[in-house]
Amino acid sequence: MIRRIILSLIFFSCFVGISQAYPVFNPQDSDGAVISGYIKDSLSGETIIGAQIRIRSLKIGALTNKGGFFTLHVPSGKKLLVEVYSVGYKTISEQMTFSPGEERRRTFELSVEAVKGGEITVESSRNELQEPQVSRVSINPQQVQELPRAGEADLFRILQLLPGVQTTSEISSGLYIRGGSPDQNLILLDGTVLYNPSHFFGFFSTFNPDAVKDVELIKGGFPAEYGGRLSAVLNVTDIDGDRNETKGKVSLGLISSRATIETPVGTGALVLSGRRTYLDVMLNATGLTQKLGLPAYYFYDLNAKLTQNPSANDKISFSGYAGSDHLDFAAANVANDITMNWGNKAGSVEWTHIFGSELFSKLDLNASNFTSQFSVGSTAQSLAWNNAIDDYTARFTLEYIPNERNSIKTGLQATGYETILKIQAGSNPPSANIDLTPFYAAGYLQDEWKPSLFTTDPLAITAGLRVDKISSNSEVGIDPRISARYILNPSISLKASFGIYHQYLKLASNPLIPVFDVWSPTDAIQPPEKANQYVLGISTIPFEDYTFDIEGYYKTMNNLVEMKPNIRSGATLEDIFFVGDGRSYGIEFFLQKQVGRLTGWIGYTLAWNWRTFPDINNGNPYPPTYDRRNDLDVVFTYVLSDRWTVGATFTYGTGQAYTQITALAPNYENPTTTIPIEGDKNSLRLPPYNRMDLSATYHFSFFSDKRNAEFDIDIFNAYNYRNVWIAQVDQSTNPAQVTYVRLLPILPTFGISVNF
């Protein structure tokens, strides 16, 4: 603790020294001026995130934030060619002249550019207009639709194809990022935390691609504005809706159907979107559910968002999400009946206000709930499991851009948690009945700083400090973070970051059945989890239309938890979890082609991941099950014509680690049985994982003079290689026999989408 406080004081002494050496610039006190405003889509009126306004002659520019707002400081008294640009839109160029001290408000509307054989679909932040943030990747939601899918377009399956992002198997949508487990990722939907964003036992994620506007993944070294997690941030923003006309989209597939409608309302727009599977309806209608003894299962998602602009300086958004899975199995004997329900609910109110060209505020009020319920047996003699976490958060952020050198952001957060776990057999007293209500508070300050103004500036630094605490533990998290970017030349830039991170929620889960996730706040005995992250990278443009990134990372993790085996009761976290440490390190290579008929990427990760627990594996280091030494992903789409687009993905990875029984010892208490003896923890590997998926999309007109419809054909596991899920050991034989349980075979699917 003392070392962290001293480090933070030194860190901010340097920070304050920099601010004094380069005082804040005010356009009223010089010959400068300010232009600010929004960049929007000309057809829908929707704000565009990450759009650029730039002046090439001065090599300066700015990006729109999550609200589509920008601020750019410019010199006065000169004719300037101002360009406004965003991926997939026509660039606007306009001559402008500014008066000394002028603060000009302007809204730019960009029109969609005609498709010329593919546009940028995935882009890494790598140019001088963007902040010096490492490991950041943006995903265009259209990419989710165009690449192969397993019967349903899914955001997480695209993210798993990026270097540094892995999964345990093809039936898991969990994101294992740079050695971290899924609970170490902060997943936000319109600012609200989602705690278990998965459907179908992890096969799909909860994000409806038709409702998504922007996807930002930060794989490591994330800034001080984000906290409470160790590994990564996934920030998803839903669409605001069309402010000019009513439109919609309907998608029909073999597994599910989706519908989205956008319509102008008042001074803004309303978006309603829904998705549901109908396998249960089809099986019941044909009688196969009863005939084959199948469980009845379905899931659904509902998204709603209302956006209003009561004034030119105010924007208010109301967002809601509800998603749930339901499974019922009626057995021949009612004692074996099974009912399972799990899902997420989330709601948020966001108010953004512009105080002036340089000051931007945002107030968020969020509520989130994850619930899982499981029961087996009849009502009188059932075993019931009820688990939930509720999150109520208020967050206030100020963004201040006093000049081209500094972009300052500060904020406060207050969160109330309620975690519930109740396990009960029949009418007996609960064997577990936990209800915890801790309170979490945090504050942060960060500044993106550039040394010079109105000149070519190769250096940019983002420095920040986050301080947080949870009421259930006495430790205060003091987390300094810094990242930097240095442009060697127009084709090569260097990036680096360091940060300290704390996590106050611990997760007990079964990786094979993720719906039984149990979130528990750290208590007075077990300290919060902590990580130190180091990242170093280089971004290059080896030749036109291609980019090539290399990033190396090293991460140490302390106070990690692993569930004790055969837990039946416990009053504290110490009764439930072993505590240990971890470290992960690796190097990632990412080659992209961003424009042209052929687009896509090749990603390769070489990584190591270790855990050390005094009470596991005799205290020796071991890899977790999701450790993957080599991971290769090849992704591409090719526009054959204005009607046909084809896509393919290929994945190869080292087999996951597992523990095997090596011997059977006599059980002297019961001579008819034996006791299995396991070898070293996760010392063996399943066979390497590999799979290829293919897709083809046909664009056509459906009762319209425009090509407003798509028909897609997808082939999952194109060459029918059955990857291994788990290794089972038959203890009845001597020696024991190992058999592999294999995953999905080739699965062709198809679907149709119509815009209206």
Please explain how this structure is put together.
It is a single chain. With 756 residues, the protein is mostly beta strands. The chain has a 22-stranded antiparallel β-barrel. Strands 9-10-17-18-13-14 form a six-stranded mixed β-sheet. The longest helix is centred in the first third of the chain and has 20 residues, at 2-21.
Keywords:
756 residues, mainly beta, 22-stranded antiparallel β-barrel, 6-stranded mixed β-sheet, 6 helices, 55% strand
Low-confidence stretches: 5-29, 115-130
As a percent range, the share of strand residues is over 45%
How many DSSP helices? 6
Overall mean pLDDT stands at 85
What is the CA-atom radius of gyration, in angstroms?
27 Å
Globally, the shape reads: globular
For the largest beta-sheet, the strand count, sense and barrel status come to:
22 strands, antiparallel, barrel
Helix content: under 10%
Please identify the structural class as seen in this structure.
mainly beta
Whole-Å distance between the termini? 59 Å
Work out the number of β strands: 49
Outline of this structure?
With 756 residues, the chain is mainly beta. The strands form 10 sheets. It has a 22-stranded antiparallel β-barrel. Strands 9-10-17-18-13-14 form a 6-stranded mixed beta sheet.
